[in-house]
Design goal:
alpha+beta
């Protein structure tokens, strides 16, 4: 089946987050753009991603809410629910088959750190459990989602787990990037014609000069304000076109593939030795590659 809504919509949300990252503002409204950036940086460094939502003007928040509601209304519930059922079964496999998987040839011959994989195993399971127990597992809840609460709850928990996993890595990149947020420097270059230009200095990166304007009494980058309506319109059109492409035949094909993959997961759960397990895992990986390639 071609391009299920989920992937594109997540890309949308992540894109918004990246854009807003340098423009945020908390409810304790910062009065100048430099203070806005400082507020968001400090919030993110403390695993408080809701500052990103509070950064958006009210009209922009309404646009994002409408996108999520539209996505939840158009996404096929059977496919969505089955996806989360499969994730839950994968969690069960990870909990019960860790030793068989880690002692198998497939892992031992793979080009990654087995010790690190073992140490981060529990955190990875915890991340998956946060997702399957969150509002994302229910389309009705997504349609009525309070994004601020979702960010403060589910996403904050994911950030904390990501930090735990990063600490197990030699480079610890994630936590180092978070630490940089506490050392951001901002300064106002000039203010004229209702525009304020600031310089943002992040450790180990080139300084960035950004022009801010006010929209609904929130300071946001001028470039973001100029592109917002166009980008939101493009995504709405893409969601609409995607839903029209999904036929009954395509849905049944997708559910059929998911049922086959579910059967492979059952075989993995039933495996008693690594010799029994590895060929089944290989079959499952092959099936996933086939599905992804068919979408191209």
């Amino acid at each position: 089946m071609k391009n299920i809504f989920f992937n594109r919509t997540i890309i949308l949300i992540l894109s918004i987050v990246v854009i807003v990252f340098i423009s945020g503002c908390s409810k304790s409204a910062a009065t100048t753009p430099d203070k806005v950036v400082d507020t968001v940086a400090q919030g993110l460094s403390k695993n408080q991603p809701q500052v990103l939502w509070n950064a958006l003007p009210e009209g922009y928040q309404k646009d994002v809410n409408e996108l999520l509601s539209d996505f939840a209304a158009k996404m096929d519930k059977d496919i969505w629910n089955k996806t989360f059922e499969l994730i839950q079964k994968i969690i069960t496999i990870l909990k019960t088959k860790k030793e068989l998987i880690l002692t198998g040839d497939m892992v031992n011959k793979a080009p990654f750190d087995k010790k690190q994989m073992s140490e981060s195993w529990g955190s990875f399971i915890a991340i998956l459990e946060i997702i399957v127990k969150s509002e994302l597992a229910d389309l009705d809840k997504i349609r009525k989602l309070s994004i601020e609460k979702f960010l403060a709850g589910t996403v904050s928990s994911l950030m904390k787990k990501a930090s735990e996993v990063s600490k197990l890595e030699k480079e610890n990149k994630y936590n180092k990037e978070l630490d940089k947020l506490t050392r951001i420097k901002t300064s106002i270059i000039k203010t004229e014609n209702e525009e304020t230009t600031i310089k943002i200095e992040v450790p180990d990166k080139e300084p960035e000069v950004v022009v801010f304007i006010k929209v609904d009494n929130k300071w946001i980058p001028k470039d973001l304000a100029g592109q917002w309506k166009e980008k939101i319109s493009e995504i709405k059109n893409e969601l609409s076109e995607t839903s029209e492409k999904i036929t009954v035949e395509e849905k049944q094909k997708a559910l059929g593939m998911m049922k086959s993959f579910d059967g492979i997961l059952d075989q993995i759960l039933a495996a008693k030795t690594k010799e029994d397990l590895e060929p089944i895992i290989g079959q499952g990986i092959g099936m996933l590659f086939g599905i992804f390639l068919s979408k191209g």
